[in-house]
Task: structure prediction
Amino acid sequence: MAPPLLLLQDINLTFGTAPLLTGAGMAVSAGDRICLVGRNGSGKSTLLKVAAGQIQADSGRRFAQPGATVRYLAQEPDFTGYDTTLAFVEAGFAGAGSGDHHRALYLLEQLGLTGAEDPNTLSGGEARRTALAQVLAPEPDILLLDEPTNHLDLPGIEWLEKELASLRSGIMLISHDRRLLERVSRATLWLDRGVTRQLEQSFAHFEPWRDAVLEQEETDRHKLGRKIVMEEDWLRYGVTARRKRNQKRLADLHSLRKQHREQRGAQGKVRMEAAEADLSGRLVMVAEGVSKAYGDRPIVRDFSARVIRGDRVGIVGPNGAGKTTLLNLLTGAIEPDSGEIKIGTNLSQVTLDQRRETLDPGQTLSQALTGGAGDTVVVNNQSRHVVSYMKDFLFGPEQANTPVDVLSGGERGRLTLARAFAKPSNLLVLDEPTNDLDLETLELLQERLADYAGTVLLVSHDRDFLDRVVTSVIASDGDGIWTQYAGGYTDMLAQRAPARASAPSGGAAKAKAGGQPPAASKTPSKRMTFKDKHALETLPGRIATLEAEIAKLNRQLSDPGLYSKNPVKFAATSQALTEAQAALSAAEEQWLELEMRREELEA
Result:
């Protein structure tokens, strides 16, 4: 085994009164590929800063091999003294013994920059990408990367995977992108309750290993508790022996009690349950020939798709492709330039925005959850104390009065989820929901979305999350063309490869981009009969009548005392509601088919 180029041993660090690191350590040798994982707030970034020499630990040892170049990707780079992004990236060669102007330009180009940008005018994403180019440029001996995929789109993440694979550097990596961790890492360092444990396998093997460790800990805690009970029983009822021996055993009991108190149990798990509203209509939204442009730039061109109740649709594409614009078109938040969006009935929409802009920084955590009124939250028609609900999302009671603006990125992410899941909904619109979430929260979020009875529209760059959650993917093909694929992200790649190899031209390509099967254009539509025309004219009125009837039945069932006062009426009303909803779905489906046939004939 190669000697470590960078070594941390028995690192202890306390912020305020709470110890953050208690005996943590790490070792990185040439060619290592280690991912550093742990909960938000566990100290991963802090440990990486200690390794980079940016933070001094309270105690412990840090050793860096003399002459070894260490580069750390900072979350907030300092551009002071640099006129261009190229000058900043080339500064990364300092102390590396060499510099390559062409490599600096290559990295900037791959990350969507030219090198001529003024660092003072960069957006947050551009600043992070410039900092990433700087640390990669010298191909250092040790590369410490804290969330390098932040502000990278899917093509950028895939490029970064290949770039890291080509380096000879020893790499320590923090990321919430599980697919990146699985593909890059060859060892996993777990930081938990201030202590590090290392698994000499990739992140793909981490979760079962972690679960086994926590299970063994729980067994050990149980044994320790039983031993304390036995010792206490001996002290109370045991046969008196020599006083010296009794004193020794009493001291041992005190030691066991102290050990039990100080033993930091595994942190709780996030509990997440979506509050669900009444069922929406079967057709949630229908896009027909939708186009949208800003100036001369097409964002969406001739896009058609249908979203059915229960669908979980992922939207993917490079930064700037128009993912959020397409999301807003589908939900009716913005109007298309041409084409039509038909929104379904009885929709209760909850949106989780990308930038957490719905959070008021001036509110406390408790006020953000209750709306500033009282101290209770209503979830699934049940009133819960706000502190109890906070605990479901790993917030302590002492954080109830914490201002939102001092929460970490991960805590803001959990707070936004807590607010979203407390509102009754049958349509969840999630724009980059995985940003800043730790792995455990991600796991639970994907489980809840998989069990969600409503419809989900999801924009995400997290490939693993998409594979585990969505039932179809709408992907950007560039120049405003969007195509819908069945399955997750990996399924989309498998379907796209042969499709691109034999890409249709002309009208066939346009039909495919619109989401319609090519065969549909080859089969002439039948003429509409008088019965069809009559149904097309009368169905909107029937749909409106059914909607009104459903609303009336829902109001009757909302009476909490109906079942106890009149169970026969309750059963009859429930049955009537089920039949009305089924009739509404059938009417909507029939109207849609007739309307599409009419438009085909007119075209």
Remarks:
- Residues 239-245, 505-525 have pLDDT under 50 and may be disordered.
- The radius of gyration is 29 Å.
